[in-house]
Amino acid sequence: MPITLFGVPSRMVVAQVRQNIIIIEFTGRSCQLSGHMQTLYCVLGDFSARDKVVYKRTLLRLLDGGTLGLDFTPSDDSHLPPDTPIIVVLHGLTGGSYESYVRAILSPGCVPVHQGGLGYRAVVVNFRGCAGVPVTSPQLYSAGHTDDLRQALFYISHRYPEAPLLGLSFSLGANVMTRYVAEEGERSRLKSACVLGCPWNLAANSSKLLTTYIGRHVYSKGMGRNLVNLLKRHVSTFASDHEVAKAAAVTMALTKPTIDMFDEHFTRIGGGSSPPWPFASASDYYEYSSSHNVLNKIKIPLLAINAADDPVVQDVPMDVEGNGWAIMALTPCGGHLGWFESGEVWGEIRRWIKGPVFEWLRATGEDFVRSPPRWRPLHEEGGFIKEVGIDRLGCKELEGSDIIMGTEGEAGLLAGL
């Protein structure tokens, strides 16, 4: 009799359980698609007509001059109680709140319970320069820079002080979120975290991408091209004599750069604005930013799900060093942020991953009782929301807000990576 996991006994069953390691056997129709097919469908598929989400955007100005875009849904949440759980989302490499993998969970997750949803609020934290967010300081974002998430959580906690905050993140955003909860430990403002497709060991996974033709010329160069295109949109905002602007000019002159080339020429310099940035090399940036070596520091419930056939993330840690807070789940199929299966209706393709994610969010949002968190208190200083004892960080809401249609992506960028 198989042991079921997350209430999906007909398709996903636990094959092995060792300490906090879950190796999952998936018996559904998703395994008819290879990891490459799942990943490429995530990139090239047309998801504009499904999982529509309407967001209300709030722009945050950070103490260093940077800007974040926080997209809240439902856009009118006045009917929800103040203690309604909030799903805090970080997107992938060059994505945003419009990504299909984000909407696949938030669209049903934020509808009322009587309609089959969770009835939660959600907010997508769009990185600097992503999803139409302006770049207003000489910095973009990176896998190792956690301060932007930290400051966004200042604001969300201040705006909804009674609400439990549940982390949900994808790919690069998953690495950022994992590092954040590890750095904060018992002070984490997130009550739990679910990280999907996390790249973990950045050096190992970047290196393995380059060993195959499709890895180098499709995935690595595709991500490199996305990043260069994103950089081109915002390079004019950098002062020409700034080191970040100089790095951007060199990077944009590269011919078909792979992601490691982009990181070597730009991310190690422009991926953060405070020590330990800038790094001497991409290798140093990878060593600092990787999340596989901080799992033992996590002090909140964390569920990490990766797919064994993910062509982008091939090196996945399955050792949490005895940390009872972290659970590692590995599915044999799913590609990178795919986890597709055929639906009941002919021609329908859906993401089955929302089932286990929903159960995790519901369990940690409603059933898990957390001991009183040891947050540093928030206070306002000069209009900025700050944490007591951390003077270098702060955020304030900018005037005005926009209604954002979640299906409107970024032209010229490959989605889903």
UniProtKB/TrEMBL annotation:
InterPro entries: AB_hydrolase_1, AB_hydrolase_4_sf, AB_hydrolase_fold, ABHD4. GO terms for molecular function: acetylesterase activity; monoacylglycerol lipase activity. One of its GO terms (biological process) is medium-chain fatty acid biosynthetic process. Coiled coil: none annotated. Residues 85-314 form the AB hydrolase-1 domain. The active site is at 171 (charge relay system), 310 (charge relay system), 336 (charge relay system). Belongs to the AB hydrolase superfamily. AB hydrolase 4 family. This is AB-hydrolase YheT.
